[in-house]
Structures
1.
Amino acid sequence: MRHSLSIAALTLSLAFAATQAVASVSPVTTTQSVTVNGSVAEVCVLGSPNPPSIDLGQMAATSGERVGKLGTISDHSVNLPDAFCNYPGTQISVAATALVEQDESTTPSGFSKAVNFTANVSGWTSSAASVTTAAAADGSNATSHSAGAEENAPQTANLTLTLTNFTAPGDGVLVAGSYNGLVTITLGPDGGN
């Protein structure tokens, strides 16, 4: 019996030693990496103009020495909030079209069917983008273009369009009718201007 007890003890010792040997072996691991990529497009956004349009009302003086000629028109401002570009090298460009009476008939001498103005867009860089229309009395050559300075970093800003310096070519008597003009503001990559 002693012999069987010794065999049982030896078997138990060997089983314990085998368990210890298995427990002390480190598990084998492996590692792999997964690359995650993405991109962000270059984007510029202009806020909606507030107000969206400007009505100058009666532009000609209706009494006094200047009756029939361009009266005094005060400056008008439009806010364009929350403008941004998420990349550098951007600028504001402005195209302005003079207010022109839409009748296609010939403009008599001493009359004008155009009202010129200056459009300034400020807030993007330290200097405003500015353009002044130079329409002739007959309304031709009504559109002018200009670009502001380059902004060299991503930018967010509240922009202000100001219309000022209203004039009639040759200070002529304004032809009666409906006058329409337009200011187009573009925010985007520097066009090299």
2.
Amino acid sequence: MKTTQKTILAILVIAILVVGYLLFNKLSTGGPASNPAPSGQNPGTSTPVYKAPTVSKATADVLKQLSTSASQSITPQQIKDYSDKVAAVAVTSPVLDVTGCTATPNVLKYNDKTTVTVQNKDTVAHTLTYGPSDKVVTLYSAPAQSVKSVTLNILSGPGIYGYLCDKQGPAGMLLVVASQ
């Protein structure tokens, strides 16, 4: 198996785990948790609370397809189909809002080596990470109550990346495309 294929397979496995967690959390709780404390905090503390992202129907359909194929061996055609579906629901936006550890948009189309404005309206900072637990990469650390134009830390180049917020749970996905 070529290195490129291994990389794609590793990215898909990570995405499958992220999506599976999202679906499990949504099914077991009936949806995003309500939070009477300030956005992103436990009541009476400064500890962030993970809230499952609210996703569009199109994104939910992609997640459903991905989770049903998680226990099967993945073919190159399934990788292509998945990539096409992620591309179809990805949103090009100049702003990535991570308030409450919930990414808006859920799937951001991002040109590598360009900037995106990351917004965090919470009173606590949030750190966005991706990668396996033994090689976690920080995409960006968003200070509390901040809006900042940044270049995200994408080490592997174009591809599909699922990412976590504050290591608590899935926050969203990036469809990274090569800058022209």
3.
Amino acid sequence: MTILDTLITDRSDSDVELYNLLKDKIQQRTATAEEWDLWEATQLKAAYNAHDLNRIASAMDCISKLIADYGYMVKGSPKSDWKEGDIPRTDEIKEFNKAIQSILHNFPPTDSSISPPKSLSNVTIKMANDLEKLFISIPNTLERISFAYEYCGTVFSGEVNI
């Protein structure tokens, strides 16, 4: 199992509703123990917290290593040691955005229904799903690229010039 197997691609409006409900209850100090447990269990798909930022950064690192084997380079190295309570600084988000842009530049989505965000600012649940779908699709894309390589002129071997 790799980090790519942990990516989330099925966020929905109900996840946003649950997040907003729990957030409101916690702010109003009316949350039950079960609601607090759910909030702290990092299982909320509709919010990017430290756990999610670390997962995304680790996925980008994994993708960077994979595509480096094929001669591609990813610019930017996002922070991957976020802790609960950390507040992302502008320069840290810029590193995330630079890496996302670099991956998108080298590997634009092959599925027209996927439109990942160009940055982590104002991300919708569809954009978050699409970003993680893009990361999941890259190993398959790399495999297809490797099958398309022309080996040492073999495309033309055996042909006779007249």
